[in-house]
Design a protein that fits this description.
The complex is a heterodimer of chains A (972) and B (377).
Chain A: H1 2-11, H2 13-18, H3 25-35, H4 37-57, H5 62-68, H6 77-82, H7 87-99, H8 101-108, H9 118-131, H10 136-152, H11 158-171, H12 175-195, H13 201-216, H14 232-250, H15 253-282, H16 285-299, E1 315-317, E2 324-326, H17 330-334, H18 364-369, H19 372-384, E3 395-397, E4 400-401, H20 404-412, E5 423-427, E6 433-436, E7 441-444, E8 467-468, E9 471-472, H21 475-483, E10 493-496, E11 501-504, E12 512-513, H22 518-526, H23 540-543, H24 553-559, E13 560-567, H25 573-584, H26 591-630, H27 635-640, H28 655-670, H29 673-693, H30 695-702, H31 714-718, H32 721-724, H33 733-738, E14 748-753, H34 761-767, H35 769-773, E15 775-781, E16 801-807, E17 814-816, E18 822-824, H36 825-837, E19 846-852, H37 854-863, H38 876-888, H39 898-918, E20 923-926, H40 932-951, H41 957-971
Chain B: H1 2-31, H2 36-42, E1 55-61, E2 68-73, E3 79-84, E4 88-93, E5 98-104, E6 110-115, E7 121-126, E8 130-135, E9 150-153, E10 159-164, E11 171-176, E12 180-185, E13 190-196, E14 207-212, E15 219-224, E16 229-233, E17 242-244, E18 251-256, E19 262-267, E20 272-276, E21 282-286, E22 298-303, E23 309-314, E24 319-323, E25 328-332, E26 344-349, E27 355-360, E28 365-370
Antiparallel strand pairs in B: 1-28, 2-3, 3-4, 4-5, 6-7, 7-8, 8-9, 10-11, 11-12, 12-13, 14-15, 15-16, 16-17, 18-19, 19-20, 20-21, 22-23, 23-24, 24-25, 26-27, 27-28
C-alpha cells in the first residue's frame, strides 16, 4: 500500500491536487480550455476553490476518510489509498461534504441512509434476478456475493467495501492485478460522475469489477457474465438513462454543485480524451502524433479508459491514436479488433506510421487475456486489413508517389523491398537496385517493376561520375566495383542487368558479371552493399503476368469485377461459361474435371441412344400399323404365321439389340442411368457399335428431328458415338463445350479470369496500369431458383454487370409448363428478363443482353417466321419486304440478311422493354456461343461497359452516343 | 387421348384435395375456441414489460466485411459461428468478442452455418448446393486457410439451412432449394435419407428453414416457399408426419419451441405463428399491423429459453420481441439505442439462454443480454 502511495504521488494528478490546492486550477485548466472552453471555463472557477480545498485534505489520511465518508460509501478507504489517481472520486465526495450531505447522498443514491441504502441496492439486484429471463445465472452469483458482502461488512461501508472484498478474494495473490482491479472500479466512478449518474455508480462498479476479474481468467470460466460487461458504447446508455430519471426526483439545490465538481474534474479528462481522438484521426498522422504526445505526458501512463494505473502497469496501445489501456479496459476499448489493436472509435482510420513496425507483434498483455487462436486472428487482421496498409502516396519512388496498384505490385513481387516505410526511394528498374533517396543502394529487389518515375542521375547523391543505368553511383559502390575487377577508369557509364552482367553504354558486348566472383558477395556484405540472393533468378519476363501472382485478400476483393451471367435454361449460359473458361484459363478443366466430364458425356450419349431407341419403337409401331392396315385383308394369314414370320419394317432390329434396347429404356425410365452407365461403358461399347451400324438405328437417326426430346446437340455426339464410348476417350475442349450438364450440376459456378494482354502490352501498360490488374469473375447462375421473390438474388448486389442471355432460336421452341400447356420459350425468357431487371437488387446495375445462338437462328428464320412468337408478331412488314428480296440476293453484302434484321428487331424489342421497366439503356450484343471469338468479343464488350461506367462522369452526353456506338460496333 | 384423360383426372383429384383441405380448415376453426393470447388474457395474465436497460447490447462482433446471413451458437463454451456474404465463416469467442477462426470459403455465397454439438467443427451451405464441413482443429494450409474436411454434395439446389442433430457430431440435416431436406452421415459423406422430393407429401417448393426438436432429436420441422411447414420423423423419410397450413406466404424461418411440442414460424406474409405438433393446430398468430399497406416479411425467429419471448427479425429492419403468451409486441430491438444500422438477418439464443445474438446486414453481430436494473427505486 505504501509503495503504491508513493507511486501515485510520483506520477498521478493527486500530487498536483493536494500540493497546491488553489493553483491546481491552472494546470488542469489548460488542457480543458482547448477542447471545451465554454463548459469548463464558466463553471469551474466559481465552485472549485472553496469546495475543493476541503477534499484535498481528506484523501490523505485513510482512516479519516473511512469515518467521514462512511455515509457516502463511494469508495472504500482502501481503494482510495491504493490508487491515488482516481482524483475524480475523491474530490467529488469532499465537494458533497462541503455543501450538503443530505442532498448529496440522495443524489448519489448509493449507500446513503436517506434514499437508497445498501440493502436497497441489494433489492435492486434481487429484483432483477427473478424477472429476467436471459441472464439469471451470473446475476445470482453476483448478487449473492454482493449481499453477503454487504451484510458482513459494515453497513456504512456500503457497496464499495463489498466490492473490494470481492476483489481481493480473486486477486489477492497479485498486487499488480490488484491495481488493475481497483483501477477499474475507479474508472467506473469516473465515468459515472462524468455522466452525472450517481445512482448506478455502486452497482456499475460491481459489474465492471466482476467483469474485470472474469476477464482475467476468461478462458477457464465458462460462466457467462453478459450483464456485467457492457461494451464501451453500451455502457453509456444505461447509466445516462438512469441518471436522467434520477435527476427528475433528486434535483435539489446541491445537484448543481455536483455537476460543477464533476465537470471540472471529469469533463476535461473525458473530453480531451475523446476530442483528441477525433481530431487526431482526422488530421494528418504527423500532426496527430505531435498533438497526441502532450496528452500522454500529462497523464503519465494512466489507462486512458479507467485513468488508473501507473507507468508500470502493463498496457496495450492503440495503433492509431496512441491511447493506452490497461488489461481490464483493453478489450472493451478495442472491441473485437477487426482491424487489430485500435480503439473502437479509431476503426477505419490509418495507423500511426511510427507503429508500423509493431504490426502483427503481439504484446504480453494480450497473450494473457486471450488465447492463441484469438491472438492469431487479431494479428492477421492487423497486418492484412486494408486500412492498415501503407498508404501508397507516402512512398515516393524516383521522385513520384506511387499509385495503389504500383504499391501492390511492389509488395507482391518475388523480391520485395524489406521493411518498406514511408519515404523517398530510388529504384533502378534494370538492375533491381533499390535504396533510399540520397543513399547507396540498400537492396536488390525484383527488376522491371513498373513503379514510380524514371531514375534520376542524382538519386543516390553520388559524386563519382561513374554511372550505372543512368545513376551516378556512390563512393562505396565505386570501391566495390573496383574490387570486383570492373574497369572504372575514365568515368564510364555502365549498363547493369539484373543478373549482374554489365556493359558499357553504347556497346553491345557484355563485359562480365559483377557478382560473378565468390568474393564479391562477401565484399558487398563488408561494405554493406546489397548482393543478389540466390533465389532471385532472372524472372523478369514473368513479373508482368498478373495471373501468376497472388495479391492480398483485401485487394483481390476490391479489384475483382463480378459479372453475373443468367438466362432461361437452354439459353446457352453454360456454353458461354465454358467458353470463357477455355478462353481465359491456362488450364480450363483439370484432370479430375475432365474425367468427370468424360463420364458425363458418355452418359449423355447413352441417353441420346435411349431416346433414339424409344423413337425407333415408336416408328416401328407406326410402320406396323400402316402395314397392318394395308394387309388387313389377309388378317388371318398374318396371325397364323405370327411366330415364324416377324414383320419386317425399316425399324426392326435383331433380338439381341432389342433386349439391349429394352434394358436401356427400362434403366432410363427408372432414372438410374447415371448410376449404371459410366461403369458399364466397357461392356456395352461393342453393342453400341453394332447398334450404330444397324440400319434400323440409322433410319431412326435420320428422322431424329421428329424426336422432340432429343436435343439438337445430340447429333454432334451421336456421329461419334463409337469413339466417345471407348474407355480411353478424352473429351476435347469442343466436346466439353457441346456437352450438356457440365456446369448445371450446381446452382452456381464461377470462374475468375483476366483478359490476356494484347501483344503490344507495354504501351497499354504504361498508359493505364489499372487495366492490367483488372480481374473479372464470371458467375453463372442456374435459373431454376428464380422464383417470384427469389431469396438470394440480393446476394449479388455487388456485381458490376448482369449479363442476360437469350437464345434467339427460342422463338420457335415450346416447353410444357406446370399446367401442361405449351409456352413459347422466348416468352418465358422475356418473363424472366422482366423479373430480374425489376429486382430491387439490380436497380443500379447495368444489363448486357446477349442474343445467343445466332447461327442456329439464321438457319431457322429462313424456315419459320419470327412471328411464330406472339411477342414478335409485328415483325411482319419487315419480313414481307425483305423476304422477297432476300431470297434472290441472299449473299449480297450491303443488304442485311433476314437473320440480322430479325436480330436487330429482337434487340430493339428488348431495349424498349428494358427502358420501359427501368428508364435506362440496355446494352445488347450478338453471340454465337460455340464460337470462341464471338464470346471473347462479348465479354470484352462487357469490360468496355464497365470502363465506360467508370468514365461516364468525364463525358458529356454528346460523347455518350459516340462512345456507345463504338462499343456496339466493337461487339459486332 | 389418354393424356387428356389423365389431365382431367389429375384436375379432379386436385380439386378434391383442395375441397378436403378447406373442410379440414373449417373443422379446425370449429374446434379452436380460443387462441393462446385470448386464454391468457382471460386468465388475467399481463404482458412482460421491458425497461430501457433490460435488454442491452453488451458485445459488438466486428470483423465481417459483408452482410451477415447466418449464425449459430455452440451448446457450451459460448462460441458463435457466423456466415457472411464476404465469403467467410468466422468463429467468435462471444465472451471476449474475439475471432478464433476466419474461414475463407471456396464459394462465397453462403446462406447458412451451424456449429457441431461438440464444438469441434462447423458446417455451412449456400448457393454452391454443397454443405461443407470444416474441422476447427485441422491444420491450416499455406495461406492460413482451413481446408474443407468434407463436402456433402447431392442437393440439386442451394442449401438454405443446416443443423446438426443434437449430441451427434456425425449427423446433419440440411434443407435445400430442390424442395428436399436431407439427413447426412458426415463420416461417410452420404445421404442417409431424403425427405421430400419424388415422394408424396414432400414440399412443393424450395425449403428455406429447418429446426430439430430439442427434446426429441428424431423429429424436425421444415418451412418452405409453398407456405407450409412440415413435420418429419427422421426414421420415416417417405412422408411428412404432418403438414401445417396457415401461412399465406413463404415460410422463411421455423424454430422449435423449447418444450418441443410446439414450433414457431416466420413468414413472408408478415406473421409469426405458433403451431402445436401434436394436434396440428395453429395456436397463435403474431402480427403487428402497420399503418401503411407494407407488410414486412419475417426473416428469422428465435425463442427465449423459457419460450415466453419470441424474437422476430423483419425485412424493414425491425426486430420485435413478442410476448408469446399474450401475443403482444413488447420491444423493438431494431429501434433500440446502438442497435444495428441495417436489417437483422439472423437471430440465435445461446444454449443457456443468457444472451441473444443478432446478425445484420450492417456486417456486425451484436450480443444482447439482460442489462440489469429492472426498476430504480
Amino acid at each position: 500500500m505504501d509503495t503504491k502511495l508513493e507511486d501515485g504521488a510520483e506520477y498521478s494528478f493527486a500530487l498536483e491536487y493536494h500540493g497546491p490546492p488553489i493553483t491546481r486550477n491552472l494546470p488542469r485548466a489548460v488542457p480543458i480550455n482547448v477542447d471545451r472552453i465554454p463548459v469548463a471555463a464558466v463553471v469551474s472557477p466559481v465552485t472549485l476553490p472553496d469546495k475543493l480545498s476541503l477534499p484535498i485534505v481528506h484523501p490523505l489520511s485513510a482512516t479519516e476518510i473511512g469515518k467521514k465518508f462512511s455515509k457516502e460509501c463511494k469508495l472504500g478507504s482502501s481503494s482510495e489509498l491504493l490508487t491515488v489517481s482516481p482524483t475524480s472520486v475523491i474530490s467529488f465526495e469532499p465537494g458533497k461534504n462541503g455543501v450538503g450531505e443530505g442532498s448529496f447522498s440522495k443524489e448519489l443514491g448509493l449507500g446513503s441512509e436517506t434514499s437508497v441504502s445498501p440493502s436497497s441496492v441489494n433489492n435492486a439486484f434481487e429484483e432483477r434476478e427473478p424477472s429476467n429471463g436471459p441472464s439469471s445465472n451470473s446475476n445470482c452469483v453476483m448478487s449473492g456475493e454482493l449481499s453477503s458482502d454487504l451484510e458482513s461488512s459494515n453497513r456504512d461501508y456500503g457497496a464499495n467495501g463489498g466490492n473490494d472484498l470481492g476483489f481481493s478474494s480473486v486477486n489477492h495473490d497479485n498486487s499488480l492485478e490488484m491495481i488493475g482491479g481497483v483501477g477499474s472500479s475507479g474508472a467506473l466512478g469516473f465515468s459515472d460522475s462524468f455522466e452525472k449518474s450517481m445512482e448506478l455508480s455502486g452497482s456499475l462498479q460491481k459489474r465492471v469489477s466482476s467483469d474485470c476479474k472474469e476477464r482475467l481468467d476468461f478462458n477457464e470460466s465458462s460462466q457467462p457474465d453478459w450483464d456485467s460487461s457492457e461494451s464501451v458504447m453500451s455502457m453509456d446508455y444505461p447509466s445516462s438513462r438512469v441518471s436522467s430519471c434520477k435527476f427528475g426526483d433528486g434535483k435539489n439545490e446541491s445537484s448543481r454543485d455536483v455537476r460543477r465538481a464533476s465537470l471540472v474534474r471529469f469533463c476535461d479528462i473525458e473530453s480531451d480524451d475523446e476530442d483528441t481522438d477525433k481530431e487526431f484521426s482526422r488530421a494528418e498522422p504527423e500532426v496527430v502524433i505531435a498533438k497526441r504526445e502532450p496528452a500522454v505526458k500529462v497523464r503519465k501512463g494512466a489507462c486512458y479508459r479507467c485513468l488508473k494505473g501507473s507507468r508500470f502497469t502493463e498496457k496495450e496501445v492503440c495503433i492509431v491514436c496512441d491511447a493506452k489501456y490497461c488489461s481490464s479496459c483493453v478489450l472493451r476499448a478495442m472491441g473485437s479488433m477487426p482491424e487489430g489493436r485500435k480503439c473502437i472509435t479509431c476503426l477505419g482510420f490509418p495507423i500511426d506510421e511510427s507503429k508500423r513496425g509493431n504490426l502483427g507483434k503481439c504484446s504480453r498483455l494480450l497473450k494473457r487475456l486471450l488465447n492463441d487462436l484469438e491472438i492469431q486472428q487479431i494479428m492477421k487482421a492487423e497486418k492484412l486489413c486494408e486500412v492498415n496498409q501503407l498508404p501508397p502516396e507516402y512512398i515516393c519512388v524516383n521522385g513520384r508517389s506511387l499509385y495503389h496498384e504500383e504499391l501492390i505490385m511492389l509488395q507482391s513481387c518475388p523480391n520485395p523491398p524489406k521493411k518498406l516505410k514511408p519515404g523517398n526511394y530510388w529504384y533502378d528498374k534494370v538492375s533491381g537496385l533499390w535504396g533510399k533517396e540520397g543513399n547507396k543502394p540498400s537492396q536488390i529487389i525484383s527488376p522491371h517493376l513498373n513503379v514510380g518515375g524514371p531514375i534520376k542521375a542524382d538519386a543516390s547523391n553520388g559524386n563519382t561520375q561513374v554511372y550505372i543505368n543512368g545513376r551516378e553511383i556512390t563512393k562505396v559502390e565505386l570501391r566495390m566495383l573496383k574490387l570486383a575487377g570492373v574497369q572504372c577508369a575514365g568515368n564510364p557509364h555502365f549498363w547493369v542487368n539484373e543478373d549482374g552482367s554489365y556493359q558499357e553504354e553504347g556497346q553491345k558486348n557484355t563485359k562480365g558479371y559483377i557478382w560473378g566472383k565468390a568474393g564479391t558477395k562477401l565484399l558487398c556484405a563488408v561494405l554493406s552493399l546489397p548482393a543478389p540472393s540466390k533465389s532471385s533468378s532472372p524472372c523478369g519476363e514473368q513479373v508482368n503476368s498478373v495471373i501468376s501472382r497472388s495479391f492480398p485478400d483485401y485487394f483481390e476483393h476490391r479489384a475483382i469485377q463480378k459479372l453475373l451471367l443468367i438466362g432461361y435454361s437452354g439459353s446457352g449460359t453454360s456454353t458461354i461459361f465454358k467458353q470463357a473458361k477455355i478462353l481465359y484459363k491456362d488450364i480450363a478443366f483439370s484432370e479430375d474435371e475432365r474425367d468427370h466430364i468424360k463420364l458425363l458425356i458418355q452418359t449423355n450419349v447413352y441417353s441420346y441412344i435411349g431416346i433414339l431407341l424409344e423413337g425407333r419403337e415408336h416408328f416401328e409401331e407406326e410402320c406396323l400399323n400402316i402395314l397392318r392396315k394395308t394387309s388387313s385383308s389377309d388378317d388371318t394369314e398374318l396371325t397364323g404365321c405370327d411366330e415364324g414370320n416377324v414383320e419386317k419394317t425399316p425399324y426392326s432390329i435383331c433380338p439381341r439389340l432389342k433386349s439391349f434396347s429394352d434394358w436401356l429404356l427400362k434403366i432410363m425410365a427408372s432414372g438410374a442411368l447415371e448410376v449404371i452407365f459410366p461403369a458399364a461403358t466397357r461392356e456395352y461399347a461393342p453393342l453400341v457399335e453394332e447398334l450404330c451400324s444397324n440400319s434400323a438405328f440409322r433410319a431412326t437417326y435420320n428422322r431424329r428431328s421428329e424426336l422432340k426430346t432429343l436435343p439438337s446437340i445430340a447429333s454432334y455426339f451421336l456421329e461419334r458415338a463409337v469413339d466417345i464410348l471407348k474407355p480411353d476417350y478424352k473429351p476435347s475442349d469442343l466436346d466439353i463445350l457441346y456437352a450438356e450438364g457440365v456446369t448445371s450440376s450446381n446452382g452456381l459456378s464461377c470462374v475468375d479470369f483476366s483478359f490476356p494482354e494484347p501483344a503490344h502490352d507495354d504501351d497499354v501498360d504504361s498508359e493505364d496500369p489499372h487495366d492490367s490488374l483488372l480481374r473479372f469473375q464470371l458467375i453463372r447462375l442456374q435459373t431454376k431458383g428464380f422464383a417470384e421473390n427469389c431469396k438470394w438474388l440480393e446476394m449479388f448486389e455487388d456485381v458490376r454487370l448482369v449479363i442476360f442471355c437469350v437464345s434467339l432460336s427460342d422463338y420457335n421452341q415450346y416447353v410444357n409448363d406446370s399446367d401442361g400447356s405449351s409456352v413459347n420459350k422466348m416468352v418465358l425468357s422475356k418473363k424472366l428478363f422482366e423479373s430480374v431487371v425489376t429486382h430491387p437488387t439490380f436497380d443500379q446495375i447495368d444489363f448486357l443482353l446477349l442474343l445467343n445462338k445466332f447461327d442456329l437462328f439464321e438457319e431457322m428464320i429462313e424456315q419459320v417466321p419470327l412471328s411464330q412468337c406472339d411477342w414478335f408478331d409485328d415483325f411482319h412488314p419487315v419480313i414481307s419486304r425483305n423476304r422477297s428480296n432476300n431470297s434472290n440476293r441472299n449473299n449480297i453484302n450491303n443488304n442485311p440478311s433476314l437473320g440480322q434484321l430479325a436480330f436487330h428487331y429482337t434487340a430493339v424489342k428488348f431495349k424498349k422493354l428494358y427502358s420501359e421497366l427501368t428508364g435506362r439503356k440496355l446494352y445488347v450484343s450478338l453471340v454465337k456461343g460455340l464460337e470462341p471469338n464471338s464470346v471473347d468479343a462479348a465479354l470484352k464488350y462487357s469490360r468496355e461497359i464497365l470502363n465506360w461506367d467508370e468514365e461516364k462522369n468525364n463525358f458529356n452526353s454528346s460523347e455518350y452516343s459516340v462512345y456507345s456506338m463504338d462499343a456496339n460496333s466493337f461487339s459486332n | 387421348m389418354s393424356v387428356a384423360e389423365l389431365k382431367e383426372r389429375h384436375m379432379a383429384a386436385t380439386e378434391t384435395v383442395n375441397v378436403l383441405r378447406d373442410k379440414l380448415k373449417q373443422k379446425r376453426l370449429l374446434l379452436l375456441d380460443t387462441d393462446v393470447a385470448g386464454y391468457a388474457r382471460s386468465q388475467g395474465k399481463t404482458p412482460v414489460t421491458f425497461g430501457p436497460t433490460d435488454l442491452v447490447c453488451c458485445r459488438t462482433l466486428q470483423g465481417h466485411t459483408g452482410k451477415v446471413y447466418s449464425l449459430d451458437w455452440t451448446p457450451e463454451r459460448n462460441r458463435i459461428v457466423s456466415a457472411s456474404q464476404d465469403g467467410r465463416l468466422i468463429v467468435w469467442n462471444a465472451l471476449t468478442s474475439q475471432k478464433t477462426h476466419a474461414i475463407k470459403l471456396p464459394c462465397a455465397w453462403v446462406m447458412t452455418c451451424a456449429f457441431s454439438p461438440s464444438g469441434q467443427s462447423v458446417a455451412c451451405g449456400g448457393l454452391d448446393s454443397v454443405c461443407s464441413i470444416f474441422n476447427l482443429n485441422s491444420q491450416t494450409d499455406r495461406d492460413g486457410n482451413l481446408p474443407v474436411t468434407r463436402m456433402l454434395s447431392g442437393h440439386k439446389g442451394y442449401v438454405s439451412s443446416c443443423q446438426y442433430v443434437p449430441d451427434e457430431d456425425s449427423h446433419l440435416v440440411t434443407s435445400s432449394g430442390d424442395q428436399t431436406c436431407v439427413l447426412w452421415d458426415i463420416t461417410t459423406g452420404l445421404r442417409t435419407s431424403v425427405f421430400g422430393g419424388e415422394f408424396q407429401s414432400g414440399h412443393t417448393a424450395d425449403v428455406l428453414s429447418i429446426s430439430i426438436n430439442g427434446s426429441n432429436s428424431r423429429m424436425f420441422v421444415s418451412g418452405s416457399c409453398d407456405s407450409t411447414a412440415r413435420l418429419w420423423d427422421m426414421r420415416v423419410a417417405s412422408r411428412a408426419v404432418r403438414t401445417f397450413h396457415g401461412h399465406e406466404g413463404d415460410v422463411n424461418s421455423v424454430k422449435f419451441f423449447p418444450d418441443g411440442n410446439r414450433f414457431g414460424t416466420g413468414s413472408a406474409d408478415g406473421t409469426c405463428r405458433l403451431f402445436d405438433i401434436r394436434t396440428g393446430h395453429q395456436l397463435q398468430v403474431y402480427y403487428q399491423p402497420h399503418g401503411d399497406n407494407d407488410v414486412p416479411p419475417v426473416i428469422s425467429i428465435a425463442f427465449s429459453i423459457s419460450g415466453r419471448l419470441l424474437f422476430a427479425g423483419y425485412t424493414n429492419g425491425d426486430c420485435y420481441v413478442w410476448d408469446t403468451l399474450l401475443a403482444k409486441m413488447v420491444l423493438n430491438l431494431g429501434s433500440l439505442h446502438n442497435s444495428h444500422d441495417a436489417r437483422i438477418s439472423c437471430l440465435g439464443l445461446s444454449a443457456d439462454g443468457s444472451a441473444l445474438c443478432t446478425g445484420s446486414w450492417d456486417t456486425n453481430l451484436k450480443i444482447w443480454a439482460f442489462g440489469g436494473h429492472r426498476r430504480v427505486i
